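ok so for the tutorial part 2 we go from a plain amino acid sequence to predicted structure tokens. step 1 is just haveing the sequence, like this:
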Amino acid sequence: MTAAAHASSADQVLDVLLHQTEPVTRPFLATSCGLSRPTIFAAIQQLEQRGLVQAVGQQSGTPGRSATLYEVPEGAGALAAVDIGGSNLRVAIADLRGQLVGEQHEPTARPGGPAIVAQAIELLRSTLLASRMAAVPLRTIGVSVPGVLEHDGRTVRYASNIDQFEPFDFATPFADAFDTVVILDNNVNLAAMAERWRGAARELSTFAVVAVGAGIGAGIVHEGRVMRGAHGAAGEVAFLPPFGTRRKVDARAHDEAGGLSLLHDAQSRSGWRGDPPTTVEDLFRRAAAGERPAATLVEEECARIASVIASICAVIDPETVVLTGGVGDNDQLIARAGSLTEAMIPFPPTLIRSGLGDRASLIGAVHLAAQSAKQELVEDTSG
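step 2 — the prediction. this is what the tokens look like for a chain of 383 residues:
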């Protein structure tokens, strides 16, 4: 067998191993890759020489000869993930299979891209040092960003919920701080990836994630692929203009369906039993108790969300819409928005709650980092 063929078989073996959560045998790899046992043996040898595979014991409890178990060792590399949000920063450390080994979060301290990225770098550094993978090569950092990612893969626009109104390069500071590959994606796109990878959308091929938190956004998956659009702005549903108007939505005021706007509106309403609510949870609780201003605000919010879902349905006809975020992850909103959506369109989707909650974008960033690292490793093996 040629060296190129050995490299190709090693790629296949590595790809299978990176998708496993438990060690596997050579016969398992031969079946999964469709390769002969001698070819699998040669591929494993090649990967062992590069530190990408290790034997971890013998399979027990089965008839016949015991078989050696193999896995990708933790020492082969670490992944890092960062989720930049308007209220919270989340970071995680994982092995090359995407299995988490460390995670931390803290409130976002200061607004603006430069300050938040500096805070995220320090939080990531401390999380990495506290993990058992501090001495392992950091292969890739996946970063979830709250805005539109430009084609250069580094610059983000319309990150208004962190008060970053001008385009900003989110990638270079991380690359300079950790001397590794940095890959970015929009936070709701990553939430959609995560829901399909390890969340509520594992069996789905065409669906949308609608995240309603401080603002609103959507991640749209069509036939298994995230839709990005010509400008990277697919899913920026906050820019949907009110029906019948000709006004372009202002980037500084495009979060009208989000929690911040909802609570701001609560302050201007009268008729409260005491002080107006200061949290979304309190607003929905008071609406459920029949307090009129709260009930009115919640109904208006449900109608806005239903309109967004109906707009998505008119374009891609998703089988399911996953709702998430501090506002979206609310049973009352899911139920009412669902019934309003059914009244608006002939083919309404099923509305379900996120399987990952407020960690969806972080888990998506882990997945992004894992996919990038796998590609780099496969290219190195092929070379």
